[in-house]
Amino acid sequence: MYHLFKSSFACSVISTFLFSILLSAALSGCDSQKSGQKNTHPRHDRIETKGDMVAQLTSPPNVPAPVGNRPAKKLKVEMEIIEKEAELSDGVDYVFWTFGGTVPGSFIRGRVGDEVEFTLRNHPDNKLPHNIDLHAVTGQGGGAEASFVAPGHEKVFAFKLINPGLYVYHCATAPVGMHIANGMYGLILVEPEGGLPPVDREYYVMQGDFYTKGENGDRGLQPFDMQKAVDEDADYVVFNGRVGALTGDKALTAKVGETVRLFVGNGGPNLVSSFHVIGEIFDQVHVEGGGVVNDNVQTTLIPAGGAAIVDFRVEVPSTLILVDHSIFRAFNKGALGMLKVEGEKNEKVFSGEILEGIYRPEGNVIQEIEPDSAEAKPVKSTPLTKAEKIKVGKLIYDKSCFACHQPEGQGLPNAFPPLAKSDYLNADVDRAIKAVIHGLSGEITVNGEKYKSVMPAQVLTDEEAANVLTYIYNSWGNNGTEVSAEQVSKVRKQ
Ligand code: CU
Q1: I need a surface site. Which of 11, 187, 331, 448 has the fewest CB within 10 A?
Q2: What residues flank ion ligand 1 with Cβ within 5 A?
């Protein structure tokens, strides 16, 4: 017993001795360890300003001109809060609360050392008090308390930009989550001394998640749903405040050979974005909007209340697709944008299709996707006019059909039959309905050409199937048939 005690005592004495040697080595040891513990961050709070200017604010997807070589200044920022009704998706309205009338709010651009005098105005027609918390601010609440402002009032506060980077700003009035969910967020860029390296094009893209009383696609004015927001059960995940803000004729543009910079933010309120551009690799990413630059990135994570600066050169003509790579959000909830690149092909970088052949090891089996879930959905009650059916049907077409049958219904030779001027469709409506709701396989002849591809059954309600077919029948030289939900229901029961 004594020996045991003695040896363990000796042991602890030795280990204490060793520990104290190690500890003193760590504390007073090599210089690199010393400097690693010291905050060597530059004292940007000491930068002197020279002159003053009014900040140019821009609506998304545009950004103000770069700061370039200008000295730090007193920078006046004037922002107006506007509560307004606008479209969240085609036929879906929402009451947005905005900084500057847009979601995301106006883009603010300054440089390190600038002293910002910020005026926040709350329009007299607004119903609620608001404020602003800028993540670029060093100070109480990021300015939230100092800027708390009732409708019909304005508040002025000032701060110095002492950390370069891309920062989110947002409303922080209770209930904070609700103010952010309604669109109260935007970006403020603090450029380093001398500015960011110049590029050919810069754009402003910001993701946000939305929570509505109705389901995704339910038409009319949709109120905010607090419970869904608490449950993080988003109906819409979008770029720049609405489904389709950056698609079709609103797509971003660039020319082959140009350098593109995206200032990408995520307002949340809940979801983290896996930001990705289909068909491109990010040459450089300012991770989390800060000073670390990562090279050759496929997907960059953008936290709620965070941002990233993404740079890349576009080498070949294509339509690049901006997505949240949590991919159901992109194709089912709206987190999808486009960057159209025009210019000369470069077949060394990308050849396009070289050869197309038939390969079908599994045979012609209909691939059915959740066959019962469509029938479980109730038929919606409000009848639509033919024009409304066509409008709504186009949305469904753009989501479910265009990838195979192509944007103008022209189809793809040897693979997917055309829907434009289609004798197969125009001859028999019930047959067309059957193809949509049950799928189609085996050889068919369309406009004299034989097709043997397999069309999967589509998960659509009777009304959705009727609308998409009405759109197809009233497009591209087809016979103008109007399909009703009842017709679809009848065919479904056959
Ligand atoms: Cu607010």
Answers
A1: 448
A2: 130, 171, 173, 179, 184
